[in-house]
Structure formats: C-alpha cells, structure tokens
Amino acid sequence: MDSVHHQVERSTRPPRRRSISRLRLRETAMGLLFVGPMLLGVIVFLLMPLIFSFTLSFSNWSFITGFDRIEFNGLDNYRNLLQDDVFLKSVVNNFVMLLAVPIGMAIALVLAIIINSRVYASGAFKVIYFMPQISSVVAVAVVWQVLFHPSVGPVNAFLMNLGIEHPPRWLADTTFALPSVMMLMIWIDLGVALIIYIAGLKYIPADLYEAARIDGASTFVQFRSITLPLLTPTTFFLLITGFIGNFKSFALIKVLTEGGPAHSTSVIVYDMYQTAFVELQTGYASSMVMVLFLILFAITALQWFGQKYWVKY
Amino acid sequence: MLLFKRIDWLKAIITAVMAMVGMIFLLPFVWMVSASLKPEADVFNYPVEWIPTTWRAAFNYSSVWLGQANFGLYYWNSMKVALLTTVLSVLVSSMAAYGFTKIRFKGRSAMFLLILATYMIPVEATLVPLFILFRSVGLFDTHTGLILLGGFSVLGTFLLRQFFASISDEFIESAQIDGAGHIRIFVSIMLPLARPAIATYGILRFIWTWNDFQTPFIFLSDRTLYTIQLGMNAFADRNGAFYSLIMAASVSAIVPLLIVFIIGQKHVIEGISLGGVKG
Predict the structure, then answer these.
(1) Which candidate, A230, A48, A108, places its Cα nearest to that of B118?
(2) Considering the domain B70-275 in this protein, what is its CATH number?
(3) Which residue, of A16, A149, A153, B233, has the greatest Cβ tally within 10 A?
(4) Confidence of residue A311 (pLDDT cuts 50, 70, 90)
(5) What pLDDT does B44 receive?
(6) d(CA A127, CA A140)
(7) Which pLDDT belongs to residue B48?
(8) pLDDT digit string (tens) for A215-243?
(9) What does the pLDDT average to over B72-84?
(10) Rounded CA gap, B26 and B43, in Å?
(11) When comparing pLDDT for A148 and B277, which is higher?
C-alpha cells in the first residue's frame, strides 16, 4: 500500500519546467529538421502547383506571353470543356479504358491461384508475367506497334494464315484501336496484380481449405466462399490503384497512337498535354487538369470511405 | 512407402498449359530480339524465322550504339538521373519516416496529414505550373530538375514509416541515455536497421525513374540530356521504317534492366507485394 501511494505521488509531482520545455524545443527543432525536406518538397512540387493550376483554370492565358497578359475569364474554360468534342471523347475513352482493370485482375487472380499451388517452377512464371512491367513502356509500345502492323505485322500474318481474310487493322482502325490499347494495358499491368494476389493468397490459412474439404466442398465452392471473400481487401486495393494508374496513362498513348486515329484513343492527360504544350493554351489546359484531379479525387475518396462497406472478412 | 517424390502428372500438365499461356508474355520479347539480329528484308518473313537465316546483328546494333543516336550517352544520362533520384528520395523519405515515428514534436500529426493529403494529387496536375516554374528558375532542361521532381515522392515516406514504426523505441532510448542525438541515432542505428526496407524501396524507385517517360519528356529538350526512354522514342520516330534497327534499339532499352530485375527479382517482387502501388 505504501508503494502504491508512493507511485501516485511521484506521477503527480510537477515536472521540472525549464529543462522539459528546453528539451521540447530541441525535439521540435530536430523534428522539423528531419521532416522539413519532405514537407518542403511536397509543398513546392505538389501543393503549390495544384493551387496554381486551379487559379490558371479560370484564365485565358498562354505561358509564352508573360504574366502581365493574364486575363481571367471566370468559368468560360469549364463551359468550353462541355462543348469540346475531343475532350469529351477523351473523358469517355478514359472511362472505357477502366474496364481493362477488372478484366486484367480477373485473369491475374486465376493465374495467381494456379501459380500459387499447382505448378512447378512458380518463380519462373512470376518473372515471365512481370517482364512487361519491368520493360520500359516506350520500347514495349514500339514493339507492339510493329507486331500489330496491319499489313505486314506478325499478328495479322498469323491470323491470315489461319484463314481470316480481313483481320482487324488494330491500332490503325478507329473501332479496334481502343480495345487494342486496352489489351496492351492488361498485358503490361497483369504482373503487378498477379504478384499482389499471390502475396494475398499466402495469408489465407491453409486449415480453412482443409476444413472445407472435410465438409465435402468442391474446388469451386472453396474458391467462392473462402478465396474470394478473404481476398476482398487485396481486390479492393488493386481495383482502386489500378483505376488511378489507368486513368493517368500517358506514355503508352503518346508512343503507341498519339491519341489517334481520329481521337479514338485520346485520354484526358493526352489532351491536356496537347493543349498545354503543343497548342500553348495554358489556361484551358489547366481546366482539364482540374477535371482530372476531381475525378481522381473521387476515386480516392471512394477508397477511403468505401473500404469499410465493401471489404468483408 | 514412398522413397522419393513421384512426379505429379496433373501438376506437370498444368505447368505445361501455363507455359503456353506464358508464351503470350514471352514471345513478343523473343520476336523483338530475333528481329534485331536480322537484315531489314527478313523481319516480316512468315512463318517467323525465330533464328535468323542471315545475321545482321553487328550492323543493327552498331547503328544504334555508334550512329547519331548515341545510346551510350542516353544510358549514362539515365544512370545518372535514376541513381541520384534514388539517393535523394531514399534520404528525404527515410529522414521524414524517422521524424514521423521517432521524434515527438508539436504539429507532427498535422504535418503528416498534410503529406498524406498531397498523396492524392496526381503528378499530371502539376506539370504545367512546374514547367512554368522550372523555366523561370533555370531548372528546365537540366538533370537537376528531373532529380528534384523525382526525389520527393510521398510513397517512400509511407513505406519507410511503416518499417521504422516497427523498430522498437528501446534502441533509441538506450542510445539517448548514452548521450547520442537524433542525427547520430538516425545514421548509425536506424539506417543500418532499415537496410532491407531501404533496399526494396530503392530498387523500386530506381526502376520507376529509369522507365519514366513522362517527366523527362516534358522537362527536357536538349538531345544530349536525353534519358534512354526519350532516346528510344526519338530513335523510333526517326527510323520509322527500319524495323530491325528499331528492334535493336528496343532490345538495348529493355534488356539491361531486365537482367538487373532477374538478378534482384526477390527484392522487386517483395517490394511490389508490400507497397503494391506505383508512383
């Protein structure tokens, strides 16, 4: 009892003020020293540019004319966006392309389950499926451009050899270009989803499957009631990061199609690049940036708030 | 009793089927290498001659490496930018991670929230203002500008913060009793302890920077500063109809990093599994 009393007394004793506050000051200075560079970088390279973009989106301005020529025009840019056929087409294309994400994930999941338990040399498979991801998008796009060449490319040579007289003209055709780009997106990004799914599968306790097997559950039932539900956090994570990455595609579009033919593969970032750096309409391009930001913001918000509703264990 | 493991035939058949599916991923690379070794006239022969009948490898590769394109210089530039970006990013990220996990100071959680919030800002939304800013301060068309742009990625702070948080505070407390300050503790205790996490993040950052096309494309214009991705793009634009040369350039752009990946695959795959995201 005496020792308890002693402890209480010690913890309520007033702190030695001066040394504590000096220590605190030193800790704060050290904290700022360590965190400062990152904080400064984030403010200079992300936050300020975003605010700047937001301001410019209400102006009719080209950066080559200098700041004194800046002219604010209210919501005109946004009004024009709604009547800009190329921009609207790009937005639609962006959303159509998002389909590549779940399709790729479904393929990745099937491959992950097979690689995880039913093959020899699983390490080699991981490396092979990851190769497109490690290769530069530029080189990969150039190679596929040649493979997909409408008249002499090996893909169509193969199809014609199979007896198909008029194979699709792939990237040169307005209806086939977008699906072709999406196929390549799946091909490039499959490895990431595959590896993350394999990591997710490792966390599912093996005794769950054992118990299901004893109860006589078929492989499909096991998949539907154990694998799939337990992988929802992984699936959700892949879906959101996949959507965000897919929405920002630029290198692939620039190298593969330049948004063509006839804007059939144009996306927001590509249209923004054209408007800002080729047509030099800085203000108008900034309004496109803000639309992009808002859509990505909505997708991220979906992640933060949706997690607790959709992720079930 | 089984003395040695029998071959599981079902597993072997599935492996064979998977290998065929894997061909979809492998064949484009094989075709690329094969085309890069042939004379132009043989590139599109059908059926595909996987092993060239006539070899033109020396000519094709010397046009890429010794011609006007100068892939050697592009490689040097890429190496420089990717290495320095990685060093800067690892340094800044691990410092921030240490500050956010091991130093208690006022405003810490507010600052972390701010950094967390900026994670939602896509780089694409900053390109135009940064382009204007870089032109006015002389960072446009410099490698320094590229390195600065890549060195402050928020992702590294998140990944390393998680790792630092898992290191017990006791290490720090006992070092503080011995009279060590935060800088000493960071350099001689935390960094060595965090080596696996730093290696994983560093390799990922290096690969991402190496493969990045968008940033150098916007912020460089001088050909002598081109990274390998820009050089590859320019080479493909200029030699539009010479597919064997373009394939030799593609091989030159892809294969070295592919070899690095195959050697360090454990780290890369681990990193992708942990962090998952690109950015």
Answers:
(1) A48
(2) 1.10.3720.10
(3) B233
(4) low
(5) 85
(6) 16
(7) 81
(8) 888 888 988 888 998 888 888 888 888 99
(9) 93
(10) 18
(11) A148
Whether A192 and B15 lie within 8 Å, measured CB to CB:
no
Interchain contact, A49 vs B129, CB within 8 Å: yes
Distance CA A285, CA A271 (A): 8
Size of interface A-B (CB pairs under 8 A): 269
From the list A50, A120, A142, the residue facing B15 with the nearest CB is: A120
- B261 close to A (CB below 8 A): yes
Q: What is the pLDDT of residue B269?
A: 82
CA distance readout (Å), A126 to A117, A183, B272: 13, 20, 12
Does the pLDDT of residue A19 top 90, yes or no? no
Please name the residues between 69 and 108 in chain B that touch chain A, using a CB distance below 8 Å.
92-93, 95-96, 98-100, 103-108
Nearest CA among B229, B240, B210, B254 for reference residue B32? B254
Question: In this complex, is the C-beta atom of B235 within 8 Å of any C-beta atom belonging to chain A?
Answer: no
Residue B125 carries which DSSP code?
G
Residues 6+ apart with CB under 8 A from A40: none
Task: Mark yes or no for CB contact A125/B18 under 8 Å.
Answer: yes
Mean pLDDT across B29-55: 86
| Number of residues written out for chain B | 279
B192 Cβ under 8 Å from any chain A Cβ: no
- Cα A98 to Cα B205: distance, rounded to the nearest angstrom: 25
Q: Tell me which chain A residue has its CA closest to the CA of residue B233.
A: A138
